[in-house]
Amino acid sequence: MGNAVIIPVDAHLLTLTISKFKIVERPVHVGRETRIQRERIQSKDEIPTQRSAASLALSFAEVNKVFGAIDIKFRLRNITPESVEAPKGSEALDDEGFLMLAKEYPMKDAVSLLLVRRFQGSEGGASKEELGVCAVGDASADTGLAHEFGHLLGLKHQGDIRDLMNPGLSPPGTPLTAGEMVDARKSPLAKRFGARPT
């Protein structure tokens, strides 16, 4: 196929925090009078991803079985736990919320992978090729992670369930088509990390 391409990935284990406010009334004695004082109290709910370094290593092994066919390997470089304010105050990340977070985590010298407890959408994830960032929820299969990496390699949705780039859920081990293999190797991401024209 050609030279091997190693694409580094920085994984961000995100805890989405949701701020909640409530008004509490308290009696306050002022001289001989009792007045009601209202206070605004803030609390936070935290929704952490359940992913771990061990589960990510297993997922990357499966992802690399797919891309190994074209000598591309995604290598987990860093795993960083982080707390962020939940976009739109939602427990589940959706496409709009993903775009809000993606701008905070653009690719620098590695692909940026955002891991959240729940992703609301048909694929269980999303990606933004221009920013070099993708996200998946805990329930997303390894095929879903490979699918999002495929988008970062410039691949578009296809209509065949036997194709990794099908917009629905493809079964485990679903390969790329011959055309997708060529396109992925020619993508800006693959070229950035060492792919040479064949």
Structural class: alpha/beta
CATH architecture: 3-Layer(aba) Sandwich
Taking all Cα atoms into account, the compactness measure Rg is 22 Å
Major sheet characteristics: 6 strands, mixed
Helix fraction by DSSP (H/I, runs of at least 4): 10-25%
Helix count equals 5
Instruction: Return the CATH topology.
Output: Collagenase (Catalytic Domain)
The count of strands amounts to 6
Uncertain runs:
none
Corresponding CATH superfamily: Collagenase (Catalytic Domain)
What is the count of structural domains? 1
**Average pLDDT, to the nearest integer?**
89
Describe the structure.
The protein has helices at 53-67, 95-102, 142-152, 178-186, 188-192; strands at residues 5-30, 33-48, 72-85, 111-116, 125-128, 133-137. It has 198 residues and is an alpha/beta fold. It has a single domain (5-17, 46-192), classed as 3-Layer(aba) Sandwich (Collagenase (Catalytic Domain)), CATH 3.40.390.10. Strands 1, 2, 3, 4, 5 and 6 form a 6-stranded mixed β-sheet that branches. Helix 1 (53-67) packs across helix 3. The longest helix is centred in the first third of the chain and has 15 residues, at 53-67. It is elongated.
